[in-house]
Amino acid sequence: MGDSGLRDYLDGPYKAARDQARVGLAEHAALLSEALELPREAYRDRVLEVLRSATADGQTAQGFPKEFGGGGDLGGFIAGFETLAYGDLSLLIKAGVQFGLFAGAILHLGTTRHHEAYLPDALNAHLLGCFAMTETGHGSNVQALRTTATYDAEAGEFIVHTPDVHARKDYIGNAARHGRMAAVFAQLIVGGETHGVHCLLVPIRDADGDAMPGVTIGDCGQKLGLNGVDNGRLTFDHVRVPREALLDRYAQVDADGNYHSEIENPDRRFFTMLGTLVQGRVSVGGAGINASKVALTLAVRYGSQRRQFGAPGAADEALLLDYRMHQRRLLPLLARTYALHFAQAELVGEFVRIFGADEPDTVSEHDRRALEAQAAELKALGTWHATETIQTCREACGGAGYLAENRFATLKADTDVFTTFEGDNTVLLQLVAKGLLTGYRESFGKLDPLGVAKFVTAQAVEIAVEKTAVRQLIERLRDAVPNRADDNDSDAGLRDDTYHDGMLRFREQHMLAGVARRLKRGIDDGIEPFEVFNRCQDHVIAAGRAHVERIVLEAFVTAVQRSPEGPVRETLKLLYDLHALVTIENERAWYIEHGRLSGARSKAITSLVNELAALVRPEALELVEAFGIPEALVDVPMLAH
Amino acid sequence: MGDSGLRDYLDGPYKAARDQARVGLAEHAALLSEALELPREAYRDRVLEVLRSATADGQTAQGFPKEFGGGGDLGGFIAGFETLAYGDLSLLIKAGVQFGLFAGAILHLGTTRHHEAYLPDALNAHLLGCFAMTETGHGSNVQALRTTATYDAEAGEFIVHTPDVHARKDYIGNAARHGRMAAVFAQLIVGGETHGVHCLLVPIRDADGDAMPGVTIGDCGQKLGLNGVDNGRLTFDHVRVPREALLDRYAQVDADGNYHSEIENPDRRFFTMLGTLVQGRVSVGGAGINASKVALTLAVRYGSQRRQFGAPGAADEALLLDYRMHQRRLLPLLARTYALHFAQAELVGEFVRIFGADEPDTVSEHDRRALEAQAAELKALGTWHATETIQTCREACGGAGYLAENRFATLKADTDVFTTFEGDNTVLLQLVAKGLLTGYRESFGKLDPLGVAKFVTAQAVEIAVEKTAVRQLIERLRDAVPNRADDNDSDAGLRDDTYHDGMLRFREQHMLAGVARRLKRGIDDGIEPFEVFNRCQDHVIAAGRAHVERIVLEAFVTAVQRSPEGPVRETLKLLYDLHALVTIENERAWYIEHGRLSGARSKAITSLVNELAALVRPEALELVEAFGIPEALVDVPMLAH
After folding, report:
1. Host domain of residue B143
2. How many domains would you assign to chain B?
3. Residue B469 above 90 pLDDT?
4. What residues contact residue B444 under an 8 Å CB cut-off, 6+ apart?
5. Pairing between β-strand A181-190 and β-strand A129-132 as defined by DSSP bridges
6. Does residue B639 fall inside a structural domain?
7. Average pLDDT over residues A362-375
8. In terms of domains, do A431 and A564 share one?
9. CA A385: distance to chain centroid?
10. A194 lies in a domain?
11. For residue B26, what is the domain's CATH number?
């Protein structure tokens, strides 16, 4: 296998941006050990220092329009950002807060006035900013935020106010120490009428770094990880900002206090605004995948040199990675990391197509919503994958894995919150499933369970819920799957990608139809819609997950097909087979329960997974080297012996 | 439900010791927040300070004979130690190193001379000590340690030596800062002959705290967690200690250099010595279970007061714990925590019976080995459970769970290594399965795969491997299970504990027989024994796990039966049902594959699990209150709103 061929293929169209990020990371590799020893405030300042030095080469502004000092290359920007996940993750998240969230809110929710006034300074990190959305009392349910921004027509100002401690802005990056300004999400009240959540720019510190009048700043203190980011709390006591502070791309308030928005439906307006911020989810998912690559690189290298026990009388003890159990623990995660990498590359491609369009308005709302769903589902899968992979790799390195110098400590702690921020994974998968249930999420009106249940009753039922229709659908899918549960030849076709895809599609469709049927039955029985929905919540989330698994699998299929013929493709196909069969194996209970797999064939899959893992094993080192993690970042003491 | 009734029942015979530990923990509750802010060295010293103050009430010496300042109450000692896991876990582990490992090695491996000379000072923590077993190159494979202790008959001394960096003692608690003496495990060489691993007491620091001549002390530095424990590295350069330094209960060297041991077989001698140290595993498993209780107390309380989303138009948003998915995530873990608690109580009872026996020599070797296996398997299950439970609880508390003030950060980081130390869980389950395969572990000779494979070929085959015998066994078990896969009445008997037990026994026996058959087939086919064993390593470990699951289930059954009639028993039975059915549900693929479960019945189990979780939900708060965690330890900011 030509390893550089594999690496080039993984790097894809944004190779240059990734390489540029790699150079920067290698240069600042010392940050990894500084992070272990510096007191919290010093670590925060050090991260800011590195962040500022990183703005010099222009990469941090790469995704922004050229007229504001950016590079106009959205894809390169995201690829570079993801690559930062190879290094200190506080730096990654600090960059995400500053350039992705704060500058991103200005770019997407503001208009030229805001762009000109703030983007250049935001992009060179002179103006540090916060993204003040989450409150102590509301994280997932953003629409229910309780901070208010009330327009005072006489003064031509908005009054930003925190009614009580539950409405305090919480967990806000850049707030505790460095932020000068915050993009504050608040219920907009104009002329006594509430128009829902909007975003305003509110200065929070003066030039001396002191809190502005009326602003109380707290510190979230020590966190599980990411202690190089200064998360804090913001409380506003009738803080006045000029009318122009409203980021008014989607809604405007004129001097006389008239509210106007081109999007009349308040829910649609809210989700449109939120939708422009999808880049955060795209980036976090990618970062999770890349953090997994670091853990796997360390664990695969360690397993390739660490010996313990072995055949008596042999000259050496056996290498850990030659043990079946070790292969079983690590190599399916390696395969899945590749799968997610390719799914992420597809997502970024779609993101660039939509957000990088010369005429953004030509992009259909349907495509935007599809992108949002894709970002949500991949964020959930990629970040859960990181949690699982890093944990498994830590355990696979035993006591050495527990020493901070070997990187798992911070990898584990820093990525832990990825499953929570930018949307709690469980909530995200639920949203994805809801979207699938209706086909068009905008038809929901509200994203609450009542809206969904009503919608399903009214429409989805007609297309999917009738028992006959469901049965027909299932029959059709069943026929499309080459191998039936009753086949005797239980090994045949197990490495055929149309078989894998058929299995995953069958599961996805069957689960969605099952959920729809349960929702309809509940409504028909007169049960309260929220209760109906809640009773099948686990089913809904499992359906969402089944969908994402299929998307990821298909991305891997495509990536194998498009890869350079020869050793690269052969290796990728092997890894793909391992991933596909482990995915089916993980859900084999469901497949058997639903008549899609016989017991014999299920056992054959387990055997084949073991065989494939053994075939991947000799390639494992090259497979992790292809991630191209700078040597300075994985040159840890446990690998030096 | 009478909550104090439930708590009393959980506390069991060692209630007084648990309550005493609770009082001490509440008194030192400030250590939890100090741990977040103190620099490493100050934190280490603070932990030592609290440890020393804890010796004052005598509890830390509770498990030792009265003549050396102990209390002679082994069960109370372990119960108290486990309870320490409610608080700062560095304190727990520091106590474990000092009293369990260091003093424990002196007590169990030494003789009166050592007891009199060192135990009193070890028990009042004036003499801080290390347990220097693990080396950089050898953790799991203790028999292959490479530090040497060579007897110099002329001088009447042992020369302790580290031949190279791989033989350096590593990850040693108390080594980096506080330890004065180490119980060093080394290959004993007398008259040119190597007698295997033995333990000697070696002074490592003088009264001023400086390293002794020939001893080089390193610091493991920052760790993923447990940073209040000073783990370090010890290298010995021909360090001389008197002949009396050998802990000589099981083997003696006389002044002329004659080696003598009552146990002639070196392997048996080694495992006998190691077996006396089983208390460490018993304690760590219990600590893992108790750390899970802290996480569950926090998450269940949070889920019972935190609201998010909900039915539109409702006065309040819905409580997290009223969501099905939230119940599904947390309540099976709560049920399993109870199951493990009762299994642990049984283990401690057995431990006390054997180690607290007035005449220890009357305890059969078979019983000792059974205890070792039970300790190993429960350590594995209890510590993996901790990792999973704490992670799930953290995620279930969202962003609040990520703030260190809410305790998950340290709980997660500190317990992470529990799956590794005192025996890597994967290795432990493998040992358990090997023991089961042969019935008598001592028959192995060596615990290496070759020995096992040979043994299986020679003997186990006769009793279990013949196809006919296996089939008969399976048939017998099949008949013992009331509900067959082909039953139509798919709900019947699902809450019958003989059904659960039958299912788990069937799985355990079937897997063990399957492994034995594969081993035999491999050997018969002339495959190299190590390779034969390695090919079914995943199968071996799964069989070990199946065994432990059955043991834990049965402990829960017994605990329900013995509980006070009335509300306590009713609540426990409900929780037990949830645990039993989730355990079967988790392995439903296997049961269906092996014809023990129909698809319909499998789905019925999943539905019933949901129903049971909903029934447990109103009891959840009382169930966590029954753990009796001092309020000062769970009075965290996220619960104050």
Report:
1. 130-267
2. 3
3. no
4. B267, B434, B438, B451, B452, B455
5. parallel
6. no
7. 90
8. yes
9. 11
10. yes
11. 1.10.540.10
Contact assignment for A599 to B610 by CB distance below 8 Å:
no
Whether the predicted pLDDT of A448 surpasses 50: no
How many interface pairs between A and B have CB atoms less than 8 angstroms apart?
Answer: 218
Lowest mean pLDDT among A516-530, B118-132, B281-295, B410-424: A516-530
| pLDDT (tens digit per residue) in B14-46 | 999 999 999 999 999 999 999 999 999 999 999
Cβ within 8 Å, pair A446-B308: no
Report the chain A residue with the minimal C-alpha distance to residue B390.
Answer: A416
Task: Look at A409 and B408 and tell me if their CB atoms are within 8 Å.
Answer: no
In this structure, the answer to whether residues B239 and B177 fall within a common structural domain is yes
Nearest to B136 among A312, A405, A641 (CB): A641
Distance from the Cα of B547 to chain A's closest Cα (Å) equals 18
Using CA coordinates, name the residue in chain B closest to A404: B223
A310 neighbors B530 (Cβ within 8 angstroms): yes
B220–chain A nearest CA distance, Å = 7
Closest alpha carbon to A591 in A508, A493, A492? A508
How much is the average pLDDT of A313-328?
95
Whether A442 has a pLDDT exceeding 60, the answer reads no
Q: What is the pLDDT of residues B100-128, one digit of tens each?
A: 999 999 999 999 999 999 999 999 999 99
DSSP string across B62-115 = TTS-GGGT----HHHHHHHHHHHTTS-HHHHHHHIIIIIIIHHHHHHHS-HHHH
What is the DSSP code (8-state) at residue B466?
S
Cβ-based neighbours of A367, under 8 Å, separated by 6 or more: A354
Is the pLDDT reported for residue B451 higher than 90? Answer: no
Task: Answer whether residue A508 shows pLDDT above 70.
Answer: yes
Quick one: pLDDT band at residue B357, thresholds 50, 70, 90?
confident
Handedness of CA B327, B330, B333, B339 (dihedral sign): negative
Final residue belonging to a domain, choices B87, B102, B123: B123
Whether A262 and A325 share a structural domain: no
- Closest to B348 (Cα-Cα) out of B29, B627, B637, B79: B79
Q: What amino acid is encoded at A391 in this protein?
A: Q
Both A134 and A88 in one domain: the answer is no
Query: Once rounded to an integer, what is the mean pLDDT over residues A321-330?
Result: 98
Can you give the CATH number for the domain in which A347 is found?
1.20.140.10
Best mutation target among B146, B325, B444 (most A Cβ atoms within 10 Å) is B325
Residue to substitute from B390, B395, B532, B607, interface A, most A β-carbons within 10 A: B395
Residue B442 confidence (pLDDT) above 70: no
CA within 13 Å, CB half, A260: 9
Same domain membership, residue B474 and residue B555: yes
Cβ distance of B404 and A588 shorter than 8 Å = no
DSSP letter at B307 equals B
Q: Which residues pair with B498 in a beta bridge?
A: none
The tens digit of pLDDT for each residue in A53-95 reads 988 878 888 899 998 888 899 999 999 999 999 999 999 999 9
Tell me which of B239, B267, B295 is where a domain ends. B267
Distances (CA, A) of B60 to A176, B17, B201, B287: 42, 11, 21, 15
Does A350 share its domain with A207? Answer: no
Per-residue confidence (pLDDT) for residue A312, from 0 to 100: 79
Residues B314 and B403 in one domain: yes
Enter the DSSP assignment of A210: P
| A635 within some domain | no
Task: Find the CB nearest B602 among A223, A314, A593.
Answer: A593
Could you identify the residue written with the tokens 């498993």? B285
Do residue B105 and residue B142 come from a single domain? no
Q: Would A630 be classed as within a structural domain? A: no
Is the separation of the CB atoms in A393 and A296 below 8 Å? yes
Distance CA A188, CA A246 (A): 10
The mean predicted confidence, pLDDT, of chain A is 91
